[in-house]
Amino acid sequence: MAVSRGFVGRRPTDSARVPPGQYVTRDFPVLSAGPTPYTPLDTWDFTVRGLVNRPVSWSWQAFRALPHENITVDIHCVTKWTKLDTTWSGVSLDTLLDAAPTQASHALAFCDGGYTTNVPLADLRGGKAWVVDEYDGQPLDPEHGGPARLLVPHLYFWKSAKWIRGLELRQADQPGFWEMFGYHNYGDPWKEQRYQGD
Amino acid sequence: MVSKTVETPRVTTIAVAIQDWPGHRAGQHVDVRLTAPDGYQTERSYSIGSAPEDAYVSLTVERLDDGEVSPYLVDELRPGDEIELRGPVGGYFAWDNELGGPLFLVAGGSGLVPFRSMLRHHRASGSRVPVRLLCSARSLELLIYREELIKLAADDLVDVSVTLTREAPDDWRGYRGRIDPALLAGCRHGCFGA
């Protein structure tokens, strides 16, 4: 480890909340791998499929009628920004997964626009993950993933897939979009699992 | 670090000589890691602005006033200093000759950096695919790589268009205003070549 001459650096003000290598931003940066899809709500649905007896789908209306929770969490992007105390409203993955009993161990989220990302099912259960449709008290903006996105705040934010349309439950793990392009398969920000090999 | 080139008052290109550099693809980035005397470290990602064929790896860095790494790279770092890089990283936003084309590249501000890598690679690899670049800057003075873009646009295959969003010279013949669907639709002729 070579010291960078003349570098002092700032220390995170709250290292209990800011993972290593992250800095706090007040903005909400927008990073996407492709164009923003605009799916009409009357054709939108959310589906749990794959290793289930029968796939389960919710229309937008049915999804909106599911019990919603208000969520305040810190989010951490692999590009190094962290945003504290973001507020969302959405449906717990516990609620959605309870409707589709499964022996699966992994989920592959699929989205409008073709994006995918993989998450172990254990990381989606136990009050740790949601499908959110409101941010900061307003309907989720398309550039932030509206009408609905995954929210898995304990993993880097690329796992919180924008424009989500459902989960494919699987017995075997299958890397998603960024996971195939060199990013870490799991993505724990507290272990700095940014890239393959971390 | 071997040299610094001031691109605009806020943007500087730093060229780095790296032992055992594995090579990169145009469009990839690196993570720059800085270490303080007490062991504190921080990293930021920067696009590579040099072509795979270039002698040095160059990064073009915009200085953010409230930044932690960019003011150090722009103000403090000097030739002879060592910096720690990790990479190259990223395989999605990349172009190489074998991928073919045509290419339509749209960038604002420092978003131009990975495209310079692609444009240089386009030339160095003798690619015959047409390239259209549309870039947005606040003013002509704040357009990075200005001289190089003019030279690159001399190639019949490369079409460079610039739109200026804040101020433009009286005799400006390029676009004005932010990139929007109408400007994209009208983007047919390069202003440097016209």
| Average pLDDT figure of chain A | 94
- So what's the overall shape of chain A? globular
Mean pLDDT of chain B: 91
Biggest chain contact: A-B, 21 and 23 residues
Q: What fold name goes in the CATH topology slot of chain A? A: Sulfite Oxidase, Chain A, domain 2
Based on the coordinates given, report the CATH architecture of the largest domain in chain B: 3-Layer(aba) Sandwich
Q: How many helical stretches of chain B?
A: 4
Category by helix and strand content of chain A = mainly beta
The count of helical stretches of chain A stands at 3
Rg on CA atoms of chain B, Å: 17 Å
- What fraction of residues of chain A sit in β-strands? 25-35%
Percent helix of chain A, as a range, is under 10%
Shape of chain B: globular
Total domain count of chain B: 2
Largest sheet of chain A: 6 strands, mixed
Structural descriptors:
heterodimer; A: 198 residues; mainly beta; Sulfite Oxidase, Chain A, domain 2; 6-stranded mixed sheet; 5-stranded mixed sheet; 3 helices; 31% strand; globular; B: 194 residues; alpha/beta; Elongation Factor Tu (Ef-tu), domain 3; Rossmann fold; 2 domains; 3-stranded antiparallel sheet; 4 helices; disordered C terminus
Describe this structure in words.
The complex is a heterodimer of chains A (198) and B (194). Chain A is mainly beta. Chain A has a single domain, classed as Alpha-Beta Complex (Sulfite Oxidase, Chain A, domain 2). Chain A is 8% helix and 31% strand. Chain A has helices at residues 60-65, 93-98, 177-180, and strands at 23-24, 45-50, 56-59, 69-76, 81-92, 106-111, 116-120, 130-135, 138-139, 149-151, 164-170. In chain A, strands 1, 4, 5, 8, 9 and 10 form a 6-stranded mixed sheet that branches. A 5-stranded mixed sheet of chain A has the order 3-2-11-6-7. Chain A is globular, with a radius of gyration of 17 Å. By secondary structure, chain B is α/β, with parallel strands linked by helices. Chain B folds into 2 domains: 3-89, Elongation Factor Tu (Ef-tu), domain 3 (Beta Barrel), CATH 2.40.30.10; 97-186, 3-Layer(aba) Sandwich (Rossmann fold). Chain B contains 4 helices and 10 strands, in the order E-E-E-E-E-H-E-E-H-E-H-E-E-H. Chain B has helices at residues 70-76, 113-124, 146-152, 181-186, and strands spanning 3-8, 11-16, 29-35, 41-47, 57-62, 84-89, 103-108, 131-137, 158-164, 175-176. Chain B has a 4-stranded parallel sheet, covered by helices on one side. In chain B, strands 1-2-5 form a 3-stranded antiparallel sheet, with helices on one face. Chain B has a 3-stranded antiparallel sheet with strand order 4-3-6, with no helix packed on it. In chain B, strand 7 (103-108), helix 2 (113-124) and strand 8 (131-137) form a beta-alpha-beta unit. Chain A binds chain B through residues 1-11, 21, 23, 33, 79-80, 177-178, 181-182, 195, and chain B through 34-37, 39-45, 68, 72, 76-77, 81-84, 89-92.
